[in-house]
Specification:
The chain has 371 residues and is of the alpha/beta class. It has a domain of 211 residues: Spore Coat Polysaccharide Biosynthesis Protein SpsA, Chain A, CATH 3.90.550. 53% of the residues lie in helices and 18% in strands. The strands form 2 sheets. The protein has a 7-stranded mixed sheet with strand order 3-2-1-4-6-5-7. A 3-stranded antiparallel sheet has the order 8-9-10, with helices on one face. Helix 6 packs across helix 13 and helix 10 crosses helix 11. The relative contact order is 0.15.
Length: 371
Amino acid sequence: MLWLWIGLQALTLIGVLLYWRHLPADAQEDAPDGVVMLVSVRDDWDGGAALIAGLKAQTARFRLLISTSGACPAAEALAAAEGEWVQVVHAGVAEDEGQKVHKLRAALRALRAEDRFLIFSDVDIVPPVRMAGRLLFPLVRGKADIVTGYRLLLPENGGMAALVGAVEMQLATLPRSASATMPWGGAMAMTREVADRLDLDAVLAGRLSDDMAMGQAGWRAGMRLRPVRDLLVATPIGGGVGDLLGFGVRQYRHIATNSIGMWAVATGVVGCQAAGWLWAIGWGGWSAVAVGYGMAWGRALVRARIVAAVLEDGQRRAAWRSLAWDVVAPFAVTWAHLVVQVAAVVSRRICWGGWDYWVRRGKVERMVRVG
């Protein structure tokens, strides 16, 4: 059993080493004409001063297309101040699909003839200045059909936020195939030609998860989905215990309600690790515990190097708070990961953005406004 445990732990370390090894040495960018960035916001959006500053500092130029449900004073004020750079689209309130999806579909219908490249982004990220250019480079060079980065949660305060960040960092630093991956809607890009070929409006109709819908459509169409490994986009996270656990469960419930097979594979892998830690602490003795901690410290060291390579100076310390969990209590990270995975399949109800959705096979069956 000890040798099996050593092998299992070694695989996790090798996986993180492979991610680090495949970080590009030359993070090349491109800045073509005809780029539009699609962002959906709630009507009570505050204008995201830090986000807008980050988007205006991008090395690649683009037009910002903001989609709201109804009247959003901050979006309207931004459009009035920025002129042609910002366009606002009013989607109305959805009745049978996710609000974000509904707004993205309205944005897609508002595209102009000259829009050749589409970037999808979220409003809760801290975009590095190279984000747009890095997403566009593989598209311009014909190396991919859909390009994606991934989020790196930055805990704002408290140990629970850091624990959720540690769980997410396990996912963020998984080895990724150069030609097949699952996109993340917070930093994703494709050409207009690919969007038209997929018929994104039809792909998104009735869905709750935008990136899962687009990723699955891309797989079915045999398209090349390429990760940009050095584009781990800082995303602050905070809140109470209930909010943080709800975030983790919601992420996996998106997966489970879209692809139970994908959820089963992910849960099986984490379940093996969780069971291994239970054995090591309960019956394996000091040698088994030492192996677990040794490999965990190795992973933390490699992840610290990844964080140093991909994040800006002011963001690294927040990310390192998550790494502390792998140093002090790596078993807690694995068990917490398994808990949110299992909780995800207890219900088909997803609470998101002021709405409760009941989802089956990726489609919204029922939705109720909360509050």
